[in-house]
Design goal:
single chain, alpha/beta, FAD/NAD(P)-binding domain, Alpha-Beta Plaits, 3 domains, five-stranded parallel sheet, 12 helices
C-alpha cells in the first residue's frame, strides 16, 4: 500500500509539485517492498467457552446475565459483599419508580442463574494468557482460585466525587444530590420550616478537580427539584448552573421544573456563587451569585444547599497494568476506537462497560453492558479465533536468547523457551499486536514483523535513495 491520500494529497494540498514527487517516492518504495512479501500463515486457536466479568454493579450484572443467557458459563467477581454497586444509592428515577427494586431483581436473577458463579468479597490477583485462553487468579479471604476463561468484561464502576467546596462537611445544611435522595426516601424527608433550597451544579466538575462533565448531574438536580416541589409546592428552589445539559427526554423535566417555579441562574467558571455560613450551625446559609438577567449580585438565604457532584471511577491502576489496557487521563478505561470499537479494549478479548468507561445514566449503562456482552459472545460462539498474522517472528538461527524482547514487550507476547538449549525466544501469536518493539530491541536482528521484514524495509530505503 502506498498511502497517497493521507500522506500526500491531504497534508500537501498547497504544494502539488512536491506532493507529486513524494507520491512517486512512496509508490517506488511500496513496489520495492512488495517484491519481498511472502504469505503469512493464518492460525486458528481454540477458545475456552466461558467468560469473566469484573464488577457486580448494574453494568457487570447486566453483562453477566446477557452472556449466561447465550449459554456460556460466566464468573462474576465483586469486590464488595453485595451486588448492585452505585445504582443502590438512587432512590427514585424520573418516573417515580425505585431503581433499587430493579437492581435487586437483577441481582436475584444473577444469583439463581445456573451458569453464573458469583465471587463476592473477591478481587483479581493476576491475569495471564490471551483472547480465547485467559487464566485469572481470584483472591478471596479463604484463599485463591484459578479460573480459565475465553473473554473478559471490565465493569468496575464508579463512585460520587467527594466535594471540598461550599462548606460541605462543615454545615448540616449542605448536602449532595445523593444525600438528598436518601432524605427524600426516608419517613421524614424535610422539616416543615424549610422555605428555600439552593442547588449548585458542576461542583468540582469541568474544572481543576474533574476535567469532564458527568452527564447525569443536571438530570439528577431536575429530578430532585421536582420531587421537592411534589412534597412542598410552596418551596422556593433556585438552581445555579453553568450549562443545563438536560439532553433527550430530560428536556421534559426541565420544562416542568420551569412551569412549577424553579428558578435557574447561570454562572460562569470565573464567577461562581459564593456561600457563607450563618452565626451558628442552625443559622441559614447565605448564597451570593451574579444573575446575568438582572445584571447584579443576588443574595439568597437558604435552608438547604444541595451540591451536584460528578462521578469518579474506581482506581484502575492495578487492573489496567495487569491487563495491559490503557486508561484516560481521568482514569477511565479507554476503548479501542470511539466509533468502530466502542466497547472493545486495545487487548483482544477484553471489553468494557458502565461507569468504568465513562459517566453515564442507568439506561446507557444497560445498553453498553449488553453491547459488551454481545461482543464477548462472538469469539465464544465461534469456538475458535484467528489472530492477526502480522506478528513477530523469531529466527532461531540468529537468536541468542538474551531476553531483551521478553523484557520490553508491552503485551507479554514473547517469551524465552528455557527448555531448548541454547535458549531461544518464541512468540505467542494470539497476544502479539505487531508493535515492533521486540524487533527494534533485538541486538542480532533475529526478529522480523509480518509485512515489515528487515529486507523489505531495506528495499524501501534503497528505492528512496535512488531518487535522491
Amino acid at each position: 500500500m502506498a498511502n497517497i491520500r493521507d500522506q500526500c494529497s491531504w497534508v500537501h494540498m498547497h504544494e502539488p509539485e512536491a506532493a507529486t514527487a513524494k507520491a512517486k517516492d512512496l509508490v517506488r518504495m511500496a513496489v520495492a517492498k512488495a517484491a519481498h512479501l511472502t504469505a503469512l500463515p493464518e492460525q486458528r486457536l481454540p477458545v475456552t467457552p466461558s467468560a469473566l466479568v469484573i464488577g457486580g454493579g448494574l453494568a457487570g450484572m447486566t453483562a453477566a446475565l446477557t452472556i449466561a443467557e447465550q449459554g456460556f458459563p460466566t464468573t462474576l467477581v465483586e469486590q464488595g459483599d453485595t451486588l448492585g454497586g452505585s445504582a443502590l444509592l438512587l432512590t427514585a428515577d424520573r418516573f417515580g419508580g425505585d431503581p433499587r427494586k430493579i437492581v435487586a431483581e437483577l441481582a436475584y436473577k444473577v444469583k439463581i442463574h445456573p451458569l453464573i458463579s458469583v465471587r463476592a468479597k473477591a478481587s483479581v490477583a493476576s491475569v495471564s494468557g490471551y483472547v480465547g485462553n485467559f487464566t485469572t487468579t481470584i483472591a478471596k479471604k479463604a484463599g485463591s482460585e484459578v479460573i480459565n476463561h475465553g473473554v473478559m468484561v471490565i465493569a468496575t464502576g464508579g463512585k460520587p466525587y467527594a466535594p471540598k467546596q461550599y462548606l460541605y462537611g462543615d454545615s448540616e445544611r449542605v448536602l449532595t444530590q445523593l444525600e438528598l435522595e436518601q432524605r427524600l426516601a426516608s419517613s421524614r424527608p424535610l422539616s416543615a420550616k424549610i422555605k428555600q433550597v439552593v442547588m449548585i451544579q458542576c461542583v468540582g466538575s469541568r474544572g481543576a478537580d474533574l476535567a469532564y462533565c458527568s452527564r447525569v448531574c443536571c438530570g439528577q438536580a431536575l429530578k430532585n427539584a421536582l420531587r421537592l416541589k411534589t412534597l412542598m409546592p410552596e418551596l422556593s428552589i433556585f438552581i445555579y448552573y453553568r450549562d443545563m445539559r438536560a439532553y433527550g427526554f430530560l428536556e421534559d423535566d426541565y420544562r416542568k421544573a420551569r412551569e412549577l417555579g424553579v428558578i435557574f441562574i447561570r454562572y460562569t467558571p470565573e464567577n461562581p456563587p459564593k456561600v457563607t455560613p450563618g452565626h451558628s450551625k442552625s443559622s441559614l446559609l447565605k448564597v451570593v451569585g451574579y444573575d446575568p438577567l438582572l445584571g447584579e449580585e443576588v443574595e439568597l438565604d437558604t435552608d438547604l444547599l444541595v451540591l451536584s457532584v460528578g462521578i469518579v471511577p474506581e482506581d484502575p491502576t492495578i487492573l489496567s497494568r495487569m491487563l495491559k489496557v490503557p486508561v484516560t487521563a481521568d482514569k477511565f478505561y479507554l476503548e479501542a476506537h470511539v466509533k468502530l470499537r466502542p466497547v472493545d479494549m486495545a487487548v483482544d478479548g477484553i471489553y468494557v462497560c458502565g461507569l468504568a468507561h465513562a459517566p453515564k445514566s442507568m439506561d446507557e449503562t444497560i445498553a453498553q453492558a449488553q453491547a459488551a456482552a454481545g461482543r464477548a459472545c462472538q469469539p465464544l460462539a465461534k469456538g475458535s479465533i484467528s489472530p492477526e498474522p502480522i506478528v513477530s517472528h523469531v529466527d532461531p538461527e540468529l537468536c541468542i536468547g538474551c531476553g531483551a524482547c521478553e523484557i520490553f514487550c508491552p503485551y507479554k507476547a514473547i517469551t524465552i523457551d528455557k527448555e531448548v538449549k541454547p535458549r531461544k525466544a518464541m512468540t505467542l501469536t494470539a497476544s502479539c499486536k505487531g508493535c515492533g518493539v521486540c524487533a527494534a530491541r533485538c541486538p542480532t536482528m533475529a526478529i522480523d514483523m509480518g509485512r515489515f521484514t528487515l529486507e523489505g524495509i531495506r528495499a524501501q530505503i534503497a528505492a528512496f535513495g535512488e531518487s535522491v
